[in-house]
Amino acid sequence: MEFWFTEKQTEHLGLSVRVHKSLLIEQTPFQKLAVLETYQYGRMLVLDGAIQTTERDEFVYHEMIAHVPLTTHRRPGEVLVIGGGDGGAVREILRHSKVRRVRLVEIDDRVVAAARRFLPGLSQALDDPRAEVVNADGAEYLRTLPGACDVIIVDSTDPVGPAVKLFEADFFRTVHDALAPEGLFVAQSKSPYLDRGLIRDLLGIVRSLFPVALLYTAAIPTYPSGLWSFVLGSKVHHPLTFDEGRAEKLETRYYSPEIHRAAFVLPREIRDELNQAQ
Ligand code: SAM
Fold it and tell me: What does pTM read for this prediction?
């Protein structure tokens, strides 16, 4: 008998993966958490029915959410991640020797525990002496750190439950205030095909707060539509004048200086719509 998990991505669209074994299914205080062993993508972390990360394609998302901002900032010493309890973003951030400390602020410690148990390839980075795990609401925690961060990475779930506030204007004002004078942030911003309205709104908020506000994309097989986006806001540095030497030296599978540059080139329809929304 075959077992399949389907992520319902819209009312009329789903992604189905054949499951070899269910490793964990748990209701946490915040969400329904599952870790599935799949034939196609290896181990898969699922929250409230939505695929968060898989062993086989996680590198694309984690490299792109980390290396674009970290090679854009000249001296990224203090880095803060909101969400990201699987540890994948922290693993990539720690590849940068300029990083002195990375704090991961995850609201649900059960996600961290599940990743430590079932996804060591991602979570072992959390044991690094430069990494610190904080169990708290990212938006609240950030208010306690005015001007303290060089780079903030919002590696959150989609805007449901505790992540709703991470997509609101008030949160981005807090991000702005928590960044040092040369600081910048990146937040995952869903699919340019399926979530255009949300992306337009987010970019509008970021443009009202930061002199540099841009969208970039990456091709991620297990995320809805396969094309994913990230919104970047920066107080000073432009991501197209990044440190190419540092970017080239990173040990990566997807990210490269060429990919960094190309990621900001948007399909015409998306470019035009976002320009019009200015
Ligand atoms: N890569 C993923 C994606 O785009 O699907 C995100 C992965 S990561 C597992 C997302 C994490 O954000 C979850 O573990 C969730 O508990 C956490 N999260 C949601 N809202 C949060 C908040 N307000 N503060 C801190 N963490 C939050």
Answer: 0.97
